[in-house]
Amino acid sequence: MTADPDQSMDAWDSSLPDSINPNNFPAKLWRLVNNPVNEAIRWDREGIVIVIDQHLFEEQILSPSNSSSSSSTALDNKDAFKTTNFSSFVRQLNLYGFKKTDANVRDCCHTDQVQFHYFYNPNFKRNHPELVASLRRLTVLNKAKIKAGLDVKNRGPSRYLRYNDDGRDKDVKRGMCHCMAVCGEIAQ
């Protein structure tokens, strides 16, 4: 798959509902799978299963050196995962309800030399970003709440999320806003 290296993942941010925290795993996954520059993870032909090339994913996405790389497949800092281990990434998929699916029924145009993984979640489909809001991390407590018929809330976007001068997100700690000095002067 050849894609325009100038195309940014930021274009995909706007397709997610505002109620979704852009720093949460599902939002990062959505941006990755919808990024045409990214060859390591993509949709299947029908847009209901994500296909992961394990070798490329480990090299381009999970590699600790990807943040310092200047290649077109290097990740934006906000899209980097906290892990560099593929099995830990798969565990996160499982915690959000993704199930491994049979490769034989999916895109069968791959060679045996490449290890592809296929994951399905009914709330993660191409062209349906609104479904991402219903993804929940299936912890023991959250599973118990769901079983009891209670609502499990996602953490919403932080009200302390701000933008740098270059337009990238940065987290601002409570009380550490750059305007605090100005606000303090006005109050005096």
Strand segment count: 6
Largest sheet: 4 strands, antiparallel
Structural class: alpha+beta
Reading the helices and strands in chain order gives HHEEHHEEHEEH
* Count of discrete alpha- or pi-helical segments spanning 4 or more residues: 6
Give the helix level as a range of percent.
Answer: 25-40%
What is the beta-strand fraction? 5-15%
Mean pLDDT across the residues is 73
Instruction: Give the N-terminus to C-terminus distance in angstroms.
Output: 59 Å
Spatial arrangement of strands, main beta sheet: 1-2-4-3
Radius of gyration: 19 Å
Task: Summarize the helices and strands and which ones pair or pack.
Layout: H1 10-13, H2 25-34, E1 41-43, E2 49-53, H3 54-60, H4 86-95, E3 99-100, E4 116-120, H5 140-147, E5 161-163, E6 169-171, H6 180-187
Short summary:
The protein is 25% helix and 11% strand. The protein has 188 residues and is of the alpha+beta class.
In words, what does this structure look like?
With 188 residues, this protein is an alpha+beta fold. Helices cover 25% and strands 11% of the residues. It is built from 6 helices and 6 strands, in the order ααββααββαββα. The strands form 2 sheets. It has a 4-stranded antiparallel beta sheet. The radius of gyration is 19 Å and the shape is globular. The chain starts with 9 loop residues before the first helix and ends with a helix. Mean pLDDT is 73; it is low at 1-14, 67-73 and 160-188.
